[in-house]
Amino acid sequence: SLLPWLALVIMLGGYFVGWMNTMRQVVAECAFVAMIPACKGRTSYLWLSCVSLVLALIHASSLLIPLYLGLMIALRKVKLERNVMIAVWVGCIALGIYPFWIKALSFLPALLDHTMMHKYGDMLASLTSGEVRYFNWGPGRIMELVSQLMLLWYYPMLKKHYSDNAHFHSFYCLAFVGMCMGNLLINTSHYLLRPIEYLTLLQGVVVAYALCAFWKTKRFVQLAVLSLVSLGVIYIAVIKAIYFPTDTNTPYLYNNNYYY
C-alpha cells in the first residue's frame, strides 16, 4: 500500500514540520492534491466546484484553475522523456542560482495590482529592481537535489511499475513542474515560492510512490539512498533548531527552512 510510505514522507520529510506554520495554506494544498483524481472525465466539474470553495479560504488558490487546465492538456498530450526532463531540471537549477531573468517580469506588478494578489505585485516590483536573496548549498539542499535526480532517473521504471495506476502520471507531471519551478525560483522570494507549493507538495507523493516501488521490486540500495535523502530532512531541521538556533529557527518554532 502507498499510504504507509506517504505517512513516512510527510512526518520525516520535513512536510509536517513546515505545515505547522501555514495551516490555512496547507489545507488548500492538501485539498488540491486530493482533488487531482477528479481532473479526468466527467468528474472535472467536481474539481472546479471544490476549487471555488478553496478559493474562499485562500486567494492564492485561484492559481488552481490554470493548473487544472494545464493538467488536462498534460494528461492528453505530454509524453515525459527522462533525458529531456533531466536537461530541463538542470537548466532550472542553473537559472535559479542567479535569477537575473526576473527583470523580464517587470510588467507583472502593474497587472497584479488589479487582482486579489496585489501584494505579489509589490514584491515583484522589488525583485525586478534587483532585490533577491541567495541560499547557500547546505546538506539539506544537496539531499533535496539528489532526491529529485533519483525521481527523474528512475522515471522509466516507475512508469512501467505503475502502468496500471490511474493517477501516477498526473502526480508525476505536476511534481516535475513543481521541482523545476522550485529550483528556478529558490533565490527569489518566499512569496513567489508559496503559490507553487501546490506543486512542490506533490514531490512527496512521488517519493512515496518511488519508495513503495523500490520495496516491491527489491531494489534495496535505491530504497536506502532515497530514504536517506528524503526522510533525513527532519533530523537536519531538529539539529539546526537545537544547536544552530536563529530568530526564525529555534527549538520552539516549527520551521523547515533547511537549505542553509
Q: What is the number of strand segments?
A: 0
The run of helices and strands is HHHHHHHHHHHHHHH
Low-pLDDT runs: 251-260
Gap between N and C termini, in Å? 34 Å
Mean pLDDT: 76
Find the structural class using helix and strand composition: mainly alpha
The radius of gyration computed from the alpha-carbon positions, rounded to a whole number of angstroms, is 18 Å
The share of residues in extended strands comes to: under 5%
Helical fraction equals 55-70%
Q: Quickly count the helices.
A: 15
Shape: globular
**How can the largest sheet be summarized?**
none
Which features does this protein show?
mainly alpha; 0% strand; 260 residues; single chain
How does this model look, in words?
By secondary structure, the chain is an all-alpha fold. 67% of the residues lie in helices and 0% in strands. The chain is built from 15 helices and no strands. The chain has helices at 3-12, 15-19, 23-35, 44-55, 64-77, 82-97, 108-112, 118-128, 139-153, 155-161, 168-185, 190-193, 197-216, 220-231, 233-243. The longest helix has 20 residues, at 197-216. The two termini are 34 Å apart.
Structure described in brief:
This protein has 260 residues and is mainly α. The protein contains 15 helices and no strands.
Helices and strands in order:
Blueprint: H1 3-12, H2 15-19, H3 23-35, H4 44-55, H5 64-77, H6 82-97, H7 108-112, H8 118-128, H9 139-153, H10 155-161, H11 168-185, H12 190-193, H13 197-216, H14 220-231, H15 233-243
Helix pairs in contact: 1-13, 3-4, 3-13, 6-11, 9-14, 11-13, 13-14
